[in-house]
């Protein structure tokens, strides 16, 4: 490579980096540069559309995987010991043997990583080679290309039901109104259709990519799926603004649109979907953090034991009168000094005792968690048949945290409630219409809010079923028959039908696929024939109508002859500014329509308007078609839509009325967001006889009553905008839409300029039923020691009502309502309440009692309470409360509350929600749970676990959470015990071999002991053990408290297990030592019964810990013992010169022919496990005196045996108690007690 080309590459790389880092990107079409080399392409600095999610290649897999694995300090520790073992002066056993454990662990992890990466590679290859249509200037048409070949600046065409390959700026669609419907389920889980509109005024109706000579200026890529800043600069330097409403995101699916074409602005890893694809979430559990501390304790213990060994070796060398023959000098005849030899011995002891640090523990924990997740996801009780969904576990490493939760933060709508909205009440111009037919069940059940499962069968159960109020029907009829141009009742229902973002589709054509033009031609011919189209629609299945529905239908849709229908159509065309096929709309019946709303509230309101005859027939970006009760159809020109945001708490639609030609602004929102904007009274209200001034007061009263009954409330208003005002406002609006900097703020400011001096129309009350078993779940969680907080955006009255309905609040509770206008009042309330609570707790008469205090706080007061000078007092009060209810809170406030409680109180927090507004709260908690409800899947996608019903939280926490924590905690403690107990056998032996680092067990068997013989039983213990049955855990929620706070795995239990391991290792070592003391047995003959008895002790110790035995436990336990004997016998038979000069040839075979071997194993096991057995089963041990008698007899026997020293076999003259029998007439020894009366 020449110097010039190298400099060119560096320069291009720097230029590319600067181009990608700029806040704004200037993009042009690639078509004029088609066929040129890459270096001459204008958009060459931006990424192509090919993606690569794999970590490794064939060349980089080994080094990169090892590099990642060595991020674990434990792996570095063991590799360091392996390297250390290659130095002869410090090695403890053969270097090749020392490699086996760490190599097995690294290899298993590498295989797992390789398999996962290979699956990612297959997915990438399939996605990159997916075909799509890209315009080619050479071929003069859209040509088929692979996704990976798409570049920024290309023009891509997407057909119906196809997935969008890159982020496209929408320039053309097959829809004459410039609309493209997309489904974003792959991004946010929402299945409702969303509209995207073309950038108007940029392309001609006949779209020709070659004629596109504009410049696209957009912001640099980011992961915000809801915002996009861009403008298109034409050759005459006119700027046309574009936002997220004109962006087709990669991964979305085109629906109900024949085709759409767009300009690629982001490709590959710079698309919004890829920037949001951060992979699986990683969280460190509380248990894992505690585990790391205990590993550090083990390291300290290891160094202490090695120091003892080093010091002991030094003292032993000093005690020798002269050099013994078994201390071999080096080649020069030089022998290391005692001090240097003891220094080397320190490292030798580290190598010898290395298994004190459990190398296989981390792998075992991962396997256990996988098994626990399998049982959680396959629990039939957590399966929801209605949605065909089960529990999803996304964070694989925090299952045990489910058993330690102390605080739960829950959303209300969709989490505690069904989020299936039912229209119940409305107030129009200060007059309340109760809709008693809809609310029969509503008034007969406690707190006017009951679970859907308990609702009466005769009550309406779907948002599509609304029984009109007869009084209101009469008012609508009068309004239609009056001579007035406007009527508040008509305007109210027009606001319900128009002021929303509901997408209208045909029930027979939802998610349709258009494959060929012949299908289009057929549909076009059918549309031209009204009778044929009617036949198609009438063949659709419709719901049976009740008697009231029949009356309503005949009232709202009187028979009309063909002439009247023609006149109506001509009126539409005269009113509409768009070329519409009105014959299509006119033939549509209400039963053929399907409404797809982003919010269930909007769907309920549209269906309510439909029940009164105001049928939303069609919606485009520029028009809304509504059928009136009289049968007339009005096409409103949509001038602008001021979308809802969490700051304004309202949305508005500006339309041009087809009859009056007025510019009308319809607004809906929260009561406080509408009431403060009221100004001009409703025009033409003389007939209200002076009551107009009381409309706002009466409506507010009705809204408060609705809220107290648990209904969700919305207020509706109207404003007539003059033409001049609209034109002046439009200039600022277009400037805001074309802005890049502060675009959201400018758009919000223009919305506020128009939403002033509103005329109040009325309000609605919508019911959202509680989910099934919510009260029982909250009561059980509270009994389990968990504090439940509800964070909602609803009015305080609505939230309090639901709080009582779900038993978050009880009648006997002291409820503190905190709604303050200023910080001084908030401070006073906090101080007074805290003083009262402390006075109650200090009263000696209230010992062992808890005051039931609940706090209800609204959003503004919460902001003050979270200020730096008040947050400590607020936390102190909240800590003493049984429940807290936060109302009118924003998503940001939700996350701040969760973070504050978690950090200040140092507790385990769990957040549960179902909507996008709960994502911040879910991510701020230690455990995030999403509910797959009616508001899409954004909460689920951001969560650690996903459930379909709030009631599933009860079993997920109280049963599976308790099991996961106790299983994993006990397994970790057992692992530490097992390794300490086994390694101490080697440590005790050092006291009898001059601390020389010698092992009395063969190195291979030592490695196999932890790697194979005792590895599977604790894993099965961690996956399948049950200390208490599910029925008991659900019936006695208080058992959950064992995992809270420090839990079962704490400082005390850890060190008790370590001390128990020391005791058992002493027994396992010194019982064989006393038996063989003074004999001439070799080192492996002494070590084999010691190794065997330690196996029995360690496995039977686990048997004592197991609470629920299954077939799997029996198979694993017996299989481990069988594997030990098979492998050891085979190894002893074939290992003739495996470990010179000492070889374990035929050792176990000889031992198994000696009765002493069996007695050593029995005695060691009994003595070692007796304290653990007595501690675990104290009542059972006291009821079994024979167990103790057998223990005493065996001890006396071995005391007598050790006194003889020279004999290793039983003598027939040995004396034992009269009731003790030992039969030595055969090869086996039968020990028992005489049967006595």
UniProtKB/TrEMBL annotation:
Its EC number is 7.6.2.1. Residues 940-1175 form the P-type ATPase C-terminal domain. Keywords: ATP-binding, Endoplasmic reticulum, Magnesium, Membrane, Metal-binding, Nucleotide-binding, Translocase, Transmembrane, Transmembrane helix. The keyword Magnesium applies. Residues 40-97 form the P-type ATPase N-terminal domain. The chain crosses the membrane at residues 73-90, 96-115, 291-316, 343-365, 989-1013, 1051-1075, 1081-1102, 1114-1136, 1156-1173. The keyword Nucleotide-binding applies. GO terms for biological process: phospholipid translocation. This is Phospholipid-transporting ATPase. It is a multi-pass membrane protein. Belongs to the cation transport ATPase (P-type) (TC 3.A.3) family. Type IV subfamily. It comes from the Eukaryota. ATP binds at residues 411-413, 602, 644, 668, 712, 792-794, 888, 894, 917-918. Mg(2+) binds at residues 411, 413, 914, 918.
């Amino acid at each position: 490579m020449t110097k010039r080309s190298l400099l060119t590459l560096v320069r291009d790389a720097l230029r590319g980096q600067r181009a990608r880092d700029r806040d704004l990107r200037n993009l042009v079409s690639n078509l004029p540069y088609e066929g040129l080399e890459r270096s001459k392409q204008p958009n060459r600095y931006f990424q192509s559309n090919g993606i690569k999610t794999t970590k490794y290649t064939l060349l980089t897999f080994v080094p990169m995987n090892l590099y990642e694995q060595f991020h674990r300090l434990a792996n570095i520790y063991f590799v360091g010991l392996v390297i250390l073992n290659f130095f002869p002066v410090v090695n403890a056993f053969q270097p090749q043997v020392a490699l086996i454990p760490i190599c097995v662990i690294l290899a298993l992890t590498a295989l797992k990583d390789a398999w996962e990466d290979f699956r990612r590679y297959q997915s990438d290859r399939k996605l990159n080679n997916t075909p799509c249509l890209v315009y080619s200037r050479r071929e003069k048409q859209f040509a088929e290309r692979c996704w990976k070949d798409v570049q920024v600046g290309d023009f891509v065409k997407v057909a119906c039901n196809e997935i969008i390959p890159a982020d496209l700026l929408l320039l053309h669609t097959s829809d004459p109104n410039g609309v493209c419907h997309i489904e974003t389920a792959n991004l946010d889980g929402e299945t409702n259709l969303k509209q995207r509109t073309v950038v108007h005024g940029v392309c001609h109706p006949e779209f020709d990519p070659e004629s596109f000579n504009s410049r696209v200026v957009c912001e640099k890529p980011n992961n915000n799926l809801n915002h996009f800043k861009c403008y298109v600069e034409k050759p005459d330097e006119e700027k046309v603004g574009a936002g997220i409403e004109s962006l087709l995101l990669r991964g979305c699916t085109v629906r109900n649109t024949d085709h759409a074409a767009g300009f690629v602005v982001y490709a590959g890893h710079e698309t919004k979907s890829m920037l949001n694809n951060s992979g699986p979430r990683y969280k460190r559990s509380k248990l894992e953090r505690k585990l790391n501390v205990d590993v550090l304790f083990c390291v300290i213990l290891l160094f202490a034991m090695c120091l003892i060994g080093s010091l002991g070796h030094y003292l032993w060398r000093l005690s020798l009168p002269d050099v013994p023959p078994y201390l071999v000098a080096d080649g020069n005849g030089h022998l290391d000094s005692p001090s240097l030899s003891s220094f080397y011995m320190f490292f030798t002891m580290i190598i010898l005792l290395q298994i004190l640090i459990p190398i296989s523990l981390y792998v075992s924990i991962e396997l256990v968690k996988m098994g626990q997740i399998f049982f959680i996801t396959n629990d039939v009780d957590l399966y929801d048949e209605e949605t065909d969904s089960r529990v999803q576990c996304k964070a694989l490493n925090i299952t045990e945290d489910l058993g330690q939760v102390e605080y739960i933060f829950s959303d209300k709508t969709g989490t505690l409630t069904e989020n299936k909205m039912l229209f119940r009440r409305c107030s129009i111009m200060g007059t309340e219409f109760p809709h008693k037919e809809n609310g029969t069940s509503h008034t007969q059940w406690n707190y006017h809010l009951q679970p859907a499962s308990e609702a009466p069968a005769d009550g309406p159960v779907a948002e599509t079923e609304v029984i009109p109020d007869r009084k209101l029907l009469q008012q609508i009829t009068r309004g239609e028959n009056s001579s007035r141009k406007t009527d508040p009742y008509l305007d109210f229902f027009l606001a319900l039908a128009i002021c929303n973002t509901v997408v209208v589709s045909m029930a027979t054509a939802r998610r349709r696929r258009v494959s060929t033009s012949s299908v289009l031609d057929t549909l076009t011919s059918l549309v031209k024939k009204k009778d044929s189209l009617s036949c198609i629609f009438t063949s659709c299945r419709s719901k049976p109508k009740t008697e009231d529905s029949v009356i309503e239908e005949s009232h709202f849709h009187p028979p009309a002859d063909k002439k009247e229908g023609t006149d109506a159509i001509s009126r539409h065309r005269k009113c509409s500014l768009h070329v519409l096929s009105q014959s299509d709309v006119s033939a549509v019946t209400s039963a053929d329509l399907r409404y797809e709303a982003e919010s269930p509230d909007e769907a309920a309101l549209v269906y309510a308007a439909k029940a009164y005859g105001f049928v939303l027939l069609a919606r485009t970006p520029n028009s809304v078609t509504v059928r009136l009760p009289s049968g007339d159809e009005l096409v409103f020109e949509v001038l602008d839509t001021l979308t809802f945001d969490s700051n304004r708490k309202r949305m508005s639609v500006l339309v041009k009325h087809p009859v009056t030609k007025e510019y009308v602004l319809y607004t809906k929102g929260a009561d406080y967001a509408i009431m403060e904007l009221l100004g001009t009274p409703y025009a033409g209200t003389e007939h209200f006889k002076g009551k107009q001034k009381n409309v706002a007061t009466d409506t507010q009263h009705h809204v408060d009553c609705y809220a107290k009954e648990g209904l969700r409330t919305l207020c509706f208003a109207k404003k007539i905008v003059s033409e001049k005002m609209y034109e002046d406002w439009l200039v600022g609006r277009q400037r805001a839409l074309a802005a890049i900097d502060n675009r959201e703020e400018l758009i919000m400011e223009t919305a506020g300029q128009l939403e002033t001096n509103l005329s109040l129309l009325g309000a609605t009350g919508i019911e959202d039923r509680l989910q099934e078993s919510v009260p029982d779940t909250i009561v059980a969680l509270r009994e389990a020691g968990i504090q439940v907080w509800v964070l909602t955006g609803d009015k305080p009255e609505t939230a309090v009502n639901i709080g009582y309905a779900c038993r978050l609040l009880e009648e006997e509770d002291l409820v503190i309502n905190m709604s303050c206008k200023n910080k001084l009042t908030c401070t006073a309330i906090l101080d007074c309440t805290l003083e009262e609570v402390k006075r109650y707790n200090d009263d000696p008469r209230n010992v062992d009692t808890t005051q039931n205090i609940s706090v209800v706080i609204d959003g503004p007061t919460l902001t003050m309470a979270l200020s730096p000078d008040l947050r400590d007092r607020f936390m102190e009060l909240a800590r003493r409360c049984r429940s807290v209810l936060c109302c009118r809170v924003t998503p940001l406030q939700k996350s701040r509350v969760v973070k504050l409680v978690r950090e200040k109180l140092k507790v385990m927090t769990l957040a549960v929600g179902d909507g996008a507004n709960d994502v911040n709260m879910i991510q701020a908690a230690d455990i995030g749970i999403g509910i797959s409800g009616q508001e899409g899947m954004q909460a689920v996608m951001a969560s650690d676990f996903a459930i379909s019903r709030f009631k599933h939280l009860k079993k997920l926490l109280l049963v599976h959470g308790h099991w996961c924590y106790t299983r994993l905690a006990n397994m970790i403690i057992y692992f530490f015990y097992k390794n300490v107990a086994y390694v101490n056998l080697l440590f005790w032996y050092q006291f009898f071999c001059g601390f020389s680092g010698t092992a009395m067990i063969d190195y291979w068997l030592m490695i196999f002991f932890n790697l194979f013989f005792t590895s599977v039983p604790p894993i099965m213990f961690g996956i399948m053990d049950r200390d208490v049955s599910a029925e008991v855990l659900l019936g006695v929620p208080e058992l959950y408290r064992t995992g809270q706070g420090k839990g079962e795995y704490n400082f005390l239990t850890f060190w008790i297990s370590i001390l128990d391991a020391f005791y058992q290792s002493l027994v396992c070592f010194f019982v064989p030592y006393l038996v063989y003391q003074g004999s001439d047995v070799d080192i492996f003959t002494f070590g084999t019964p010691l190794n065997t008895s330690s196996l029995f002790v360690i496995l039977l110790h686990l048997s004592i810990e197991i609470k629920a035995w299954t077939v799997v436990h029996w198979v694993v336990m017996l299989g481990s013992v069988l594997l030990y004997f098979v492998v050891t016998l085979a190894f002893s038979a074939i290992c003739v010169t495996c470990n010179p000069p000492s070889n374990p040839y035929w050792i176990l075979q000889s031992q198994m022919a000696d009765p002493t071997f069996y007695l050593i194993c029995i005695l060691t096991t009994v003595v070692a496990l007796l304290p653990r057995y007595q501690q675990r089963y104290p009542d059972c041990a006291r009821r079994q005196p024979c167990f103790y008698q057998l223990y005493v007899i065996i001890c006396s026997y071995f005391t007598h045996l050790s006194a003889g020293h020279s004999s290793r076999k039983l003598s027939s003259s040995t004396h034992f108690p009269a009731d003790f029998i030992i039969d030595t007439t055969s090869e086996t020894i039968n020990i028992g007690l005489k049967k006595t009366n």
